[in-house]
Amino acid sequence: MTSPHDILLRLLSLEGRVDPYPHYRDLIERWPVLPITPGRLLVTGYQECADVLVNPKLFPVPDPHYANRLWPTWHTFPSTDLLYRSLLFRNAPHNQPARRLIARFFAPGQVQRMRPMITRHAEVGTAPFGGEGREDREDGVVDATRSFTTIPHAVMGELLGLPPHDSGQVAAWIDGFLERNELHPPDKPLTDADEAAERLVDYVMDTVLMEAPDRTPLVQTLMGHDEADYRDLVGNLVFLLGAGTVTTGSLLGSGVRQLAVDNGLLPCLREDDALLRSFVQETLRYDPPIQYGVRVAAQDTKLGGIPVARDSVVLVCFGALGRDPDRFAHPDVFAADRFLAPETEPRDILSFGLGAHRCAGAVLALITAEAAFRQLALRVDAIAEAGPPRRQARAVIRRYTRLAVEVTPR
Fold first, then answer.
1. Using CA atoms, how far apart are residues 49 and 353, in angstroms rounded to an integer?
2. Which of 78, 194, 206, 359 is least enclosed by beta carbons within 10 angstroms?
3. Average pLDDT over residues 289-305
4. How many CA atoms are closer than 13 Å to the CA of 61, on its beta-carbon side?
5. Hey, is 332 helix, strand or coil?
6. How high is the mean pLDDT of the chain?
């Protein structure tokens, strides 16, 4: 009989980090809440994950107050100081009014008005698939990580006022900053992450926070309240850069792979808005960009019948909860039309979180993905993988480093 220890070892292996899904089923069915070390639990069951996410008072995010108790030297590291100053690790009321301002800026109606701008960047990002942009195309093969999955970088760059030619360097800094800070506290040296964080801070100060009237509406929105702390403001701007690019880029890469499996979807995505939305939602369920979210127990409690001690780290496995058969029929099957059925509910997808800490930019990510896949479908008649894709062997963020596909333009 396979033990939970065996499954965890497989999950943490190189192969398990690249493709964790074969290892989730036993955990979901037999150990939906699994203590993995003293003071650390892995939660894979859908309902158990939802119980954590919907209760921010009992299971808050690890904030500076938590870090002060359990890791008092955190503020001496530039990367962790930057991270803990962002909304990602702030609980109410300390995440206000910044979170409220961001949520208002990215409200559904506001993002709908951004569609022409998003579509413009999607057209540029899909140009190599249609035979344009020869530098990104060779003998009918396109590396989607050099154009398609960078569409969110262009969108967020315009919203923050970044020069387009800086996007590659900024993406590299963000990757270095986040890679070493996936776990709490980190279990790796932070030298590289600290250097990347310092460069990001300098860049944001010099490029984003320039003198008015050159600041973009998004930057002005975040600067427009009296309680703004300049260091917190920089932390939130870096957080927006990371959250608005890395996650959506991963979503686009996963969707490309599904289209390569089923070319029959391409003509449907050109015309059918409802199917396009369902395809994006199913991609988010099937292969979410973020595999784990972190919470801490504010007091001694129980979760799924398992005792949870105060200050325990609770890892909510977004990758697993989308594969729970108690919530999703045939969860290991990708069904592009899954969310067209009347008995399904897109709100069941928790990949953007739930409740007080749900991603404030979720609507932007979904609409960016819809625009990107629509433009891709308009440009190609067929698409196929041209070699094994490459992902970073990361536990939390699923980022492609190469995704070569052979395309037949329309």
1. 10
2. 206
3. 95
4. 24
5. coil
6. 91
Return the H-helix or E-strand segment holding 407. strand 404-409
Burial class of 194 by CB neighbour count within 10 A (0 to 12, 13 to 18, 19+): buried
pLDDT beyond 90 at 186? no
Q: Are strands 141-143 and 137-138 parallel, antiparallel or unpaired?
A: antiparallel
DSSP letter string over 202-242? HHIIIIIS-STTSS-HHHHHHH-STT--HHHHHHHHHHHHH
The residues facing 397 across adjacent strands are 290
Burial 134-161 (b: 16+ CB within 10 A, else e): eebbeeeebbbbbbbbbbbbbbbbbbbb
Single-letter amino acid code for the residue at 98 = A
Q: How far apart are CA 105 and CA 159, in angstroms?
A: 11
Under 8 Å between Cβ of 225 and 99: no
Q: What angle do CA 175, 181, 184 make, to 5 degrees?
A: 160
- Model confidence over 219-274: pLDDT tens digits? 988 887 655 678 888 989 999 999 899 999 999 999 999 999 999 999 999 999 99
The token pair that represents 397 in the structure block: 């963020």
**Number of Cα atoms under 13 Å in the Cβ half of residue 311:** 9
| 114, 105, 217, 211: CA torsion to nearest 10 | -150
Burial of 169 (0-12, 13-18, 19+ CB in 10 A): exposed
Two tokens at 410? 């329309």
What tokens were used for 75? 């503020």
Query: What tens digit of pLDDT does each residue of 342-398 get?
Result: 888 898 999 999 888 899 999 999 999 999 999 999 999 999 999 999 988 888 888
pLDDT at position 394: 83
pLDDT at 189: 83
Helix (H, G, I), strand (E, B) or coil at 188: coil
Per-residue model confidence (pLDDT) at position 136: 52
